[in-house]
Write a structure and sequence with these properties.
The chain is of the alpha+beta class. Helices cover 28% and strands 15% of the residues. Strand 3, helix 1 and strand 4 form a beta-alpha-beta unit. The longest helix is centred in the N-terminal third of the chain and has 12 residues.
Length: 183
Amino acid sequence: MAQLQDIPLRRIDGSPATLKEFAGSVLLIVNVASKCGLTPQYEGLEALYGKYRAQGLVVLGFPANDFGAQEPGSNQEIVEFCQARFGVDFPMFEKIAVKGDAQHPLYRELISQKPVARANASGTLSAKLAEHGMSPKHPSDVLWNFEKFLVDRQGQVVDRFAPDVTPEQPELVHAIEAELSKG
């Protein structure tokens, strides 16, 4: 099993990175997209980052074009969009694949540690995707843009939230606060 912290990544500016630089932090890893109905979640993710950053939360954005081609832009276009539209200050990484044959090793490991996302009890996203024949091939696949993986300070995935669990929803906020309180 790969260690999350050791998987080679690239920041959105192309510079090499790993999750080691965030050692000791609680991480919220999110696959993001600029042209998705869920794109306004950037605002909530930035608010979470702003509110809990001093306590050790780091939100990490991973643009992906795997769902409905909703992230067609270049890395530079994504940066410009996120900063201009939502004032995104949390770390962003280069565009990757979160499913399929080209799936990035980071997402392979995240999913292996937490194969099932916590659904939004009142959400309809899964049903809407099914209506359009867009359900995931495997139950462990990332459902859509803005799925969230919560990683504890030791680098283990402790929770996973469906894309329609918004950054403001109590189940996500409580899970983050619980991990931060473990100091």
